[in-house]
């Protein structure tokens, strides 16, 4: 049952069928079914996984032999949390979209994107990685272009140009690296063995870094993000923020740092500084946002900045923190966007000034939202704390002041998150919010799962940390960064 | 008994879950029974644990017990376990938290009886007890930090309990954010401790630290950072302004969280880490200086406040300042002693104020009170005891604990003693002012309020009476040798502070000096009580209305030295302006402007992209999927 190939193909076949389903109800039910089957197929991987540093469940066959391209995938402790995240979140995202009358095409795109994401997180061949990267990108482009808000075309163009530029640079780097490989293939292991000189590694660093930095996004490559997150339909925003941005972080851990360690030695500190700037910069901008979705978009830049900083600190705590925080951030951000979607759908606006007092008519939503907000500000016994603690500890070991500035997220995050919570939930009700119906049905289900995950991981993070521990320790050990202070 | 430690925090957690989940179905009476019952259970268990610790101490042992629950976070060389530590210090804190907590739960069944959020209130209160117990029981800095931040959450929820009022909701947010500033200090201190000692367990850190030299720079940094954390949680300069605002919460919350327990967490944490502080003389000086400044500033504000809860809030800030003064001059036992007695008399005073507010139909302005001792005799008598206790008049509890701190201050630095003495004068004055304005003279409220005046029900007066007894006699657990006492508390706690005492030696002040100090401060307190009596009873002065112009000093005090306004002008507004600037100018015009310029040039030269906007998208999707499948199939069949 633990055939990785099947796991990757399931959503593709689902998408193929869904492309022809016109009836909305049938489409969403089938999409949910496919995503749940995918999730069920993930369980054997979890059960059979051996928590050591080895690559497991490998599948490899020649794909385009004349070009040295192999379809080579596998899972290790670094991939598995992200595979779990992807297959765990997609059913929630589909369920969260149940209030909209999307036809089969929409769900086909979602599932197709899921396949791309899974390929990115499991690829052991650079070409396969690149294919996954693009396969994940194109559907989300259509989702935003077809179901987005008023400004979707303009915003989408920017999004496309940004990410396309990044992809192009990465493709150039991959082809260059391939040409240096003596065995004439694209294998990750071959890339790892290349001993390129420092100046080559430096431009390789930039080519990969820009692609990943745009995707995450890291300051100052982020300006597509608030617009795109805001204009995209909520399901699209969830896919982008919940899963897709992790492609960038994963790319840094799996490809950038091990392939170009000398480049990282030269520019890693700069990258880390950019990440930390992003934490403070985006947090401060988030203070005064009136559009709830845009506020969370900026908060996401801040959170991802800290994740990036943990990765570039390149020690066990930092990278472990990054991996668990990728999972946590995915859960939290999907929860946040879903709550805001519920509120915006009922009030017809995302303007925080038009909200207020919702805790009174909708106490359950208020509790759920509070738990999600507390997870986002990293309160102990929520998942956010575990990640933030490890990340900051990792960054601290890299340099005290980075941790102090990165740690400002503790304060600034509380400011904007609690301001948002207060504006939505507290105060007196107005005409619109007085009759606000509390959550029900599928909303209840999605949020209950999210709340349980937030508290569950927060109270007992051991099993999740244990998955990646050995793999991270070995990778960090193997790729010692020279010139790190 | 000791293997049941885990049950102590678990009981209130269960109470939180039951009352939280069942808040719509459980009847109020049952909610009250569950909410109070779990805390009573925790209290009984704590008594059992305490008696074990006590007998171990009698047998001359250090009486330290730990219990591992599970390994919480592991990464590389970091191993954090969820584990508990019971020793003399935490044993006493257990009694305070669960004992006073129980009384306040009982009180709340009466005070909150008519509130629609009754069950929610008890759920939050139970959750608070849970986190406070984690804070107290943690055997390492991380478990302490869980509790530390968790009580902050509960404080947030309970300050904003009546969230319909947006000023209350803002007060809640302010409390959380200001505490978070301190929490960052805590977290960085934790990192520094970990990188220095390689562990976060108290049992690993303290013995190691005891071998370090006096004045070690790392220790100084650690302790300064920990002290920043303490200024947040325990409302000291510069992070004290949230506590007066926190009075927006229901009065039992003010008594439990914002007087008796949570706000003393900073003192507990420093007392727990005493060896680190003892070896950092510079930090101790900072602690003492901040403590005495806060004590004076808050007392100077309290003398002109007219809101009965605000007086008590500033009084709390001021008394916490005394505790920090005690810590700063090395009087760890004295500071902790004051935590204990303050918990008795300040909880009593807040609950008494609650009883008054209850009787006055939610009126909190003392200018509308007066003459209440006839209608509220129990409240009056108990509050009188509380007032005498806090004023430092012997033989009530406050006298002994305050005296111990001041005696140490005298031995350390005469100026500190002098300032502390002045603060004590203020304290006696504003407390008796409050008492006289509330209970003496004639009634100044509306006829409507007058017709409703009543003594509170037994659920509220019984806790008052118990606390009054404790406030009266609580001081006898640590009578100084000058008065023929045996320092029972100091002996009990001695293993906790043993390393520090080994560094600094025991404190000595000859008995005649001590008698003089005691005599001076007791007489001064009585004198100030008389001054207040002449002003507010004999002359029957009523504080001026808000709009009346005041002299400079009175205005500074009345307007709380404009600290909030200064913070607003220096921090809040510039940050908000920066937010707008970064968003509009840097982000939109700056960075995005460059990107848009690029995009435009690309857009004009590449018509291909436009196809994506106008083409048949369904067809594209289909092609995309087909292409991918064909590509894969190609691989499979040619592989």
UniProtKB/TrEMBL annotation, chain A:
<keyword id="KW-1133">Transmembrane helix</keyword>
<dbReference type="GO" id="GO:0015990">
    <property type="term" value="P:electron transport coupled proton transport"/>
</dbReference>
<dbReference type="GO" id="GO:0042773">
    <property type="term" value="P:ATP synthesis coupled electron transport"/>
</dbReference>
<keyword id="KW-0812">Transmembrane</keyword>
<dbReference type="InterPro" id="IPR001750">
    <property type="entry name" value="ND/Mrp_TM"/>
</dbReference>
<feature type="domain" description="NADH:quinone oxidoreductase/Mrp antiporter transmembrane">
    <location>
        <begin position="124"/>
        <end position="408"/>
    </location>
</feature>
<dbReference type="Pfam" id="PF00361">
    <property type="entry name" value="Proton_antipo_M"/>
</dbReference>
<feature type="transmembrane region" description="Helical">
    <location>
        <begin position="263"/>
        <end position="283"/>
    </location>
</feature>
<feature type="transmembrane region" description="Helical">
    <location>
        <begin position="29"/>
        <end position="50"/>
    </location>
</feature>
<dbReference type="GO" id="GO:0016020">
    <property type="term" value="C:membrane"/>
</dbReference>
<feature type="transmembrane region" description="Helical">
    <location>
        <begin position="322"/>
        <end position="343"/>
    </location>
</feature>
<dbReference type="InterPro" id="IPR010227">
    <property type="entry name" value="NADH_Q_OxRdtase_chainM/4"/>
</dbReference>
<feature type="transmembrane region" description="Helical">
    <location>
        <begin position="236"/>
        <end position="257"/>
    </location>
</feature>
<dbReference type="GO" id="GO:0012505">
    <property type="term" value="C:endomembrane system"/>
</dbReference>
<feature type="transmembrane region" description="Helical">
    <location>
        <begin position="398"/>
        <end position="421"/>
    </location>
</feature>
<feature type="transmembrane region" description="Helical">
    <location>
        <begin position="442"/>
        <end position="460"/>
    </location>
</feature>
<feature type="transmembrane region" description="Helical">
    <location>
        <begin position="364"/>
        <end position="386"/>
    </location>
</feature>
<dbReference type="GO" id="GO:0048039">
    <property type="term" value="F:ubiquinone binding"/>
</dbReference>
<feature type="transmembrane region" description="Helical">
    <location>
        <begin position="81"/>
        <end position="98"/>
    </location>
</feature>
<feature type="transmembrane region" description="Helical">
    <location>
        <begin position="159"/>
        <end position="179"/>
    </location>
</feature>
<feature type="transmembrane region" description="Helical">
    <location>
        <begin position="203"/>
        <end position="224"/>
    </location>
</feature>
<comment type="similarity">
    <text>Belongs to the complex I subunit 4 family.</text>
</comment>
Automatic annotation (TrEMBL), chain B:
<feature type="transmembrane region" description="Helical">
    <location>
        <begin position="416"/>
        <end position="440"/>
    </location>
</feature>
<feature type="transmembrane region" description="Helical">
    <location>
        <begin position="378"/>
        <end position="396"/>
    </location>
</feature>
<dbReference type="GO" id="GO:0015990">
    <property type="term" value="P:electron transport coupled proton transport"/>
</dbReference>
<dbReference type="GO" id="GO:0012505">
    <property type="term" value="C:endomembrane system"/>
</dbReference>
<dbReference type="InterPro" id="IPR018393">
    <property type="entry name" value="NADHpl_OxRdtase_5_subgr"/>
</dbReference>
<feature type="transmembrane region" description="Helical">
    <location>
        <begin position="118"/>
        <end position="136"/>
    </location>
</feature>
<dbReference type="Pfam" id="PF00662">
    <property type="entry name" value="Proton_antipo_N"/>
</dbReference>
<feature type="transmembrane region" description="Helical">
    <location>
        <begin position="142"/>
        <end position="163"/>
    </location>
</feature>
<dbReference type="InterPro" id="IPR001516">
    <property type="entry name" value="Proton_antipo_N"/>
</dbReference>
<dbReference type="GO" id="GO:0008137">
    <property type="term" value="F:NADH dehydrogenase (ubiquinone) activity"/>
</dbReference>
<feature type="transmembrane region" description="Helical">
    <location>
        <begin position="92"/>
        <end position="111"/>
    </location>
</feature>
<dbReference type="GO" id="GO:0003954">
    <property type="term" value="F:NADH dehydrogenase activity"/>
</dbReference>
<dbReference type="GO" id="GO:0016020">
    <property type="term" value="C:membrane"/>
</dbReference>
<feature type="transmembrane region" description="Helical">
    <location>
        <begin position="30"/>
        <end position="56"/>
    </location>
</feature>
<feature type="transmembrane region" description="Helical">
    <location>
        <begin position="253"/>
        <end position="270"/>
    </location>
</feature>
<feature type="transmembrane region" description="Helical">
    <location>
        <begin position="335"/>
        <end position="357"/>
    </location>
</feature>
<feature type="transmembrane region" description="Helical">
    <location>
        <begin position="311"/>
        <end position="329"/>
    </location>
</feature>
<dbReference type="GO" id="GO:0042773">
    <property type="term" value="P:ATP synthesis coupled electron transport"/>
</dbReference>
<dbReference type="Pfam" id="PF00361">
    <property type="entry name" value="Proton_antipo_M"/>
</dbReference>
<feature type="domain" description="NADH:quinone oxidoreductase/Mrp antiporter transmembrane">
    <location>
        <begin position="140"/>
        <end position="427"/>
    </location>
</feature>
<feature type="transmembrane region" description="Helical">
    <location>
        <begin position="184"/>
        <end position="206"/>
    </location>
</feature>
<feature type="domain" description="NADH-Ubiquinone oxidoreductase (complex I) chain 5 N-terminal">
    <location>
        <begin position="72"/>
        <end position="122"/>
    </location>
</feature>
